[in-house]
Amino acid sequence: MTTTTVLSSGRAPIQQTLWVEKYRPTQLQDIESHQEIIHMLRQFMQQNQLPHLFFYGPAGIGKTSTVLSLAKEMYRGKFRQMTLHLNASDQQGSDYFRKEIIDFISTKGLFVTMPYKIVILDEADSMSKESQIVLTEIINEYGEDVRFCLIGNYQHALLPELSSHLIKLLFLPIPKESSLTVGELILQKEQVPYERPALEHLYDVMGGDLRKFINMLQTVYLRHRSITLTGMITFIRQYEFGNIDFLFHLLGQTPFSIIHTVRAVKQYLMEHSQCFPWWMNKVSLYMCNRLTGPSLFTFIEQASQIEYTCSELVNYDIQMYAFLSLCHQYTNQLL
Length: 335
Description:
With 335 residues, the protein is an alpha/beta fold. The protein has 3 domains: 34-170, P-loop containing nucleotide triphosphate hydrolases (Rossmann fold, 3-Layer(aba) Sandwich); 174-239, Orthogonal Bundle (Helicase, Ruva Protein, domain 3), CATH 1.10.8; 244-334, no CATH class. 55% of the residues lie in helices and 10% in strands. The chain contains 17 helices and 7 strands. It has helices at residues 19-22, 35-46, 63-75, 79-82, 94-106, 129-142, 160-163, 176-189, 196-206, 210-224, 229-235, 244-251, 258-271, 276-288, 293-311, 316-329, 331-334; strands at 2-5, 14-17, 53-56, 83-87, 117-122, 146-152, 167-170. The strands form 2 sheets. A 5-stranded parallel sheet has the order 4-5-6-3-7, with helices on both faces. Strand 4 (83-87), helix 5 (94-106) and strand 5 (117-122) form a beta-alpha-beta unit. Helix 13 crosses helix 16 (316-329). The longest helix has 19 residues, at 293-311. The model is unreliable at 2-15 (pLDDT under 50).
């Protein structure tokens, strides 16, 4: 996949392969982080007992790359014959969903000795109830001939009947050092001049979403032809949660409306490409630097509980209501 970028200086367009695709891992050993999960998958492979799986966690942290690498190691040259990759949110009704999968399962691969195929379903937590029921029926009927790997953000979105068939593996955000290692490797291979503090600043803003981290590196490179701290700060200023006044203006309104505040914050996060847990972390640090005494201790205790709940990927909307209500309790001490 390529992109065309027209430079503001008027120079000729540059044809660029997306780095996130160019450097996508093709083997499990190349997956950055998630070592416990990789070890578990290797054990399943060695014993030829791969179960139905559900990879869940935030976006851009390697869930799809992991299952594709797994399938490529298992099937090697027969990968395309033995693997079906669908986006579950794009399926055109449960009948289409059933036909697409059953047709794939029923097609025999030539010179293939593996006992089962793999169906990968991205955005599985967006499946309708009807499609989940159909998928459960397919697993019950064809479970010996196929293994399903579902990929999504939230485990609570799956019906219990479907969830009971799956081994659920939580993928956590990519740690800072791992992200910097990947970023530096790509920049070195692309022969791009860079400053490590620029990468550190980008991670602090983007968080553990490695896909977004790599895409932003490439975007900044196409604009500036190098990665410097000054250029990085200037370019991604729009993404940072620097407008604390925006939040506390909402929290200080009389009468205060939690519904209006949540809607405004969600719109802000969408426009600035921020995910809620990382945004919450930045606001929490701001609050902790300004509260004192018992208020500080109480805030930390309650905020940490909300953050822990988010790490379990319970519905973010509920946690956003809880966090903004918590911040509102302390607004008068900060204004």
